[in-house]
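Before surveying the methods themselves, let us examine one representative protein, pairing a chain with its fold in token form.
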Amino acid sequence: MSNRTLALTDKLYQYLLMHMGNEPEVLKQLRNHTTHIELSQMQIAPEQGRFMAFLVKLMNVRKVIEVGVYTGYSSLSVAMAMPADGKIIACDVNEEWTNIARRFWEQAGVSHKIELRLAPAVETLANLIDQGESANYDMAFIDADKVNYRTYYEQCLKLIRCGGLILIDNTLWGGDVAEVSVKDEDTCAIREFNQFICQDKRVDMCMLPVADGLTLLRKC
């Protein structure tokens, strides 16, 4: 027994993967494909995708914002869990990576649920706010450039309904957030963001040691 989160050995992690439920074949294919391309470490872990899909079903999520698509594992996990009328606004700027995402969205039969917007996310989110979309979304997932996390968060907070969720990826940042000697721009940005949301009374928050750190924020 333990009163703190276990450190996952390779053996225990493989046990986790084997017993978290079957990963759909299309997700497995996308994950394997991504391991061979640039910056493959940016792809979320399969257990995180499973957890996000579980939240979608638990909350009956129908409208989602995704900031940072990469090759599409997170958006595919979410889209496959959503009802037929579900909709994801997926924000990214990289056409090469998102072309891979599009291919697997098509293969899974969920491309009609995902609207990819290739433009800076701050612009896409600002446009949604200007178009009267505030408080119209059930969930947002932020996994993009770390220095803009606070900006994305503030915009998503406007777009999410009361009771909706914002998920922030990489909030433990490989453990560097706890190392005061590490002072690169991304690490400092995540540290500052983590400190800010701990004190933000507009949300209820929970930081989980899932993959590289996943913070859940419920809009009050």
Q: What stands out?
A: Strands lie at 63-67, 87-92, 114-118, 137-142, 160-169, 203-208, 214-219.
